[in-house]
TrEMBL record:
Single GO term (MF): pre-mRNA 3'-splice site binding
Compositional bias ranges of the Acidic residues kind: 202-218
Originating organism: Papiliotrema laurentii
Protein name in UniProt: Pre-mRNA-splicing factor SLU7
PANTHER family the record matches: PRE-MRNA-SPLICING FACTOR SLU7 (PTHR12942:SF2), STEP II SPLICING FACTOR SLU7 (PTHR12942)
Region described as Disordered: spans on this chain: 1-45, 200-228, 447-498, 519-570
Family: Belongs to the SLU7 family.
InterPro entries recorded: Slu7_dom, Splicing_factor_SLU7
Ranges annotated as biased composition (Basic and acidic residues): 10-39, 468-478, 485-498
UniProt KW Nucleus keyword: yes
Length: 570
């Protein structure tokens, strides 16, 4: 007997109690049942789904029998670009037989009983020659369908060669048949059809019936009918209603996040193209249809029905649209009557009805019956000139010697009005003419800013005014301000001090210069204390050769050739 216990029968009272509990759970009056994981079971799920079969019944409410087992759900699958690399070899073949390899071909990836090579009279184990390369072993955890997929590893691009070959053969067949038909001298329809049918019978393996029928019709139309002459090339044809070159609205933008297309109603409310001007769009959407025809009236009726329902009226456009439309029409009539009554009562109480009347056409359009004739220069030849409209303000008044009226000039900087003759911004001022314009321009904010920008800063002006002692001395010499006592003192100065002008040339003794250079190198080789003691013992005046030696031997950090050493001197 089976170890699984069969469900016992329940009484009618227990069955009725279960039904009441289920109805209470659906109504939300009772707590829904929970499965073994603590998740609530939707009470609206039918019983034939929640009830487990006899072989999977656990005795408790559950939906686990409706779900896949976890070991099946997490089973890995092959990806789209994974397949068996059939016939792939793992690198070059070995040079000699390896232990544990196939005795027939010498590969390490299989044994002799699994070898697919031709059985050799003497295997590679004994000859050591013609050893085959190892195969690529792949481990795929594919399911049943993935292991038996006929298209696994197929490259669709390889089929292009088949298509090209078919098109070439079809083009050659078509050309041969056209040449054969063109060679016919007769224009009889029967002869043309006979040749076409014969070509079809010869080439049964290629071509399509649609193309063959089209060719037969083309050459049959070119033949003349009995009793009439008709040039079929000039025949006027009517184009199809649907232009097949047009792009469908759902193919304009293939982005899935773009405008939604409803295939049932064939409508696309929003524009599929974003960032394009409306006049440049191929399709701007079907939203304009929502506001055309009677759609606006329907919206007004629906709004009236909602407002009436809020006020306690039994109006529903879905259940009784005719009554709703009649009520809306009656409401509009009463609304117009109420508006007219209110308008009449206000005019009767406050007056002013004459202002609501339309003005005569002569006043609105400025047209009268008065005849006026003008000359080429604009002067009146015949008739009376039209009176000019006068302003409530004083016109052509020039106070305080001004030649322009007040308000003829506007200062953008200060935002005030003034006189155009002198740019004065005070209405009670006297006219100053061009001098006032110049003063106003000079005192403007822009002029002051430009003057401050053009003038040099105080630091630069002070530095440019300073002069060095040498420049001041040269200036005094040029002006003859140096006295004789100064000239006597100049005689006692050393040689380098007498050379006041840097442009003067001084004769330098080469022997003294070499000696001064040697002494300068010896001085630089000394320490600081020793050099200081040597300097105190030496003479105080400096010769021109010593000064030149110091200049030649000092290190110039900005000179790129300062550290250069000639290899020939070493």
């Amino acid at each position: 007997m089976s170890a699984i216990s069969q469900p016992s029968r329940i009484s009618r009272e227990e069955y009725r109690k279960q039904k009441e509990e289920d109805a209470a759970r659906r109504a939300g009056e009772a707590v829904p049942l929970k499965d073994e994981h603590g998740n609530e079971i939707n009470p609206h799920i039918p019983s034939f789904i929640t009830k487990a079969p006899w072989y999977a019944d656990t005795g408790a409410p559950s939906l686990s029998h409706q779900r896949l087992p976890e070991e099946v759900a997490v089973e890995p699958h092959l990806k789209l670009n994974q397949w068996y690399d059939r016939g792939a070899k793992a690198g070059p073949a070995a040079k000699k037989y390896r232990k544990g390899a196939c005795e027939n071909c010498g590969a390490m990836t299989h044994k002799k009983q699994d070898c697919v090579e031709r059985p050799r009279k003497r295997g590679a184990k004994f000859t050591g020659k013609d050893i085959m390369a190892d195969e690529v072993l792949q481990d795929f955890n594919g399911d049943y369908d993935a292991k038996r997929d006929r298209w696994n590893g197929y490259d669709p691009a390889s089929y292009k060669a088949v298509v090209d070959e078919y098109e070439a053969i079809e083009a050659a067949r078509q050309k041969a048949r056209e040449e054969q038909i063109d060679a016919q001298t007769s224009t009889d329809i029967a002869a043309v059809k006979k040749v076409a049918k014969k070509a079809v019978a010869d080439d049964e393996d290629f071509g399509s019936s649609d193309e063959e029928d089209a060719d037969e019709d083309k050459y049959a139309e070119s033949a003349d009918q009995v009793g009439q002459k008709l040039d079929t090339k000039t025949r006027i044809t009517v184009r199809n209603l649907r232009i097949r070159e047009d792009t469908a609205k759902y193919l304009i933008n293939l982005d899935p996040e773009s405008a939604h297309y409803d295939p049932k109603t064939r409508s696309m409310r929003d524009a599929p193209e974003v960032g394009v001007k409306p006049e440049d769009m191929r399709f701007a959407g079907d939203n304009f249809l929502r506001y055309s025809g009677d759609s606006t009236n329907m919206q007004k009726l629906q709004l009236f029905a909602w407002q009436s329902a809020q006020r306690g009226k039994n109006v529903n456009m879905s259940s009784n649209p005719t009554a709703g439309e009649l009520l809306h029409r009656e409401f509009q009539q009463k609304k117009e009557i109420m508006k007219d009554t209110t308008k009449t009562s206000i005019l009767a109480k406050y007056g002013g009805e004459e202002h609501l009347e339309k003005l005569p056409k002569e006043l609105l359009m400025g047209q009268t019956d008065n005849y006026v004739e003008y000359s080429r220069t604009g002067n009146i030849i015949k008739g009376r000139e039209r009176a000019k409209a006068r302003s409530k303000y004083d016109e052509d008044v020039y106070p305080n010697n001004h030649t322009s009226i007040w308000g003829s000039f506007y200062d953008r900087g200060s935002g005030q009005w003034g006189f155009a003759c002198c740019h004065s911004l005070i209405s009670a001022s006297y006219c100053t003419g061009e001098a006032g314009k110049t003063a106003a321009q000079a005192s403007s904010a822009n002029a002051l800013l430009e003057a401050a920008r053009d003038s040099p800063p105080p630091e630069q002006e002070a530095s440019s005014s300073r002069k060095t002692l040498a420049e001041q001395h040269l200036e005094d010499l040029a002006n003859g301000k140096v006295n004789a006592k100064g000239k006597e003192k100049e005689k006692n100065l050393p040689n380098y001090a007498k050379r006041v002008d840097p442009t003067d040339e001084v004769d330098i003794d080469r022997e003294k210069l070499k000696k001064a250079l040697a002494e300068e190198k010896k001085r630089k080789a000394m320490g600081e204390d020793e050099a200081w003691q040597q300097t105190k013992k030496s003479k105080t005046d400096v010769t021109q050769e010593e000064l030149e030696a110091y200049r030649l031997s000092r290190q110039a950090f900005d000179d790129p050739m300062a550290n250069y050493k000639d290899p020939e001197e070493d």
